[in-house]
User: Which sequence fits this backbone?
């Protein structure tokens, strides 16, 4: 596995993966890594926001739904990155590319 594919895949592994991916991509700005970085960043921000909201509710069913959706979206992203595809993740991929274009 080459450095570019690795940088794109690792971005989907939470906050640490996002930081690591950005560090890998700091020298040479590769659009493939940036594409997947933006999607992973939006997934992570949404999950953190929903978990913060759920913190007050402490609802186990809601927590399970949040993590199920998170894992599903991240698996799709990892699949696309592994297969060298720049395809948007369903529902949020288009927004990630638009909102985080400068990152």
Assistant:
């Amino acid at each position: 596995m080459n450095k570019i594919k690795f940088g794109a895949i690792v971005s989907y592994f939470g906050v640490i993966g996002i930081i690591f991916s950005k560090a890998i991509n700091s020298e040479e700005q590769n659009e493939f890594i940036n594409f997947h970085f933006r999607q992973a960043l939006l997934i992570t921000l949404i999950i953190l926001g929903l978990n913060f909201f759920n913190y007050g509710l402490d609802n186990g069913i809601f927590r399970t739904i949040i993590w199920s959706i998170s894992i599903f979206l991240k698996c799709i992203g990892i699949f696309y990155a592994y297969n060298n595809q720049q395809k948007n993740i369903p529902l949020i991929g288009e927004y990630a590319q638009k909102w985080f274009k400068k990152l």
In short: The chain has a mean pLDDT of 89. The radius of gyration is 14 Å.
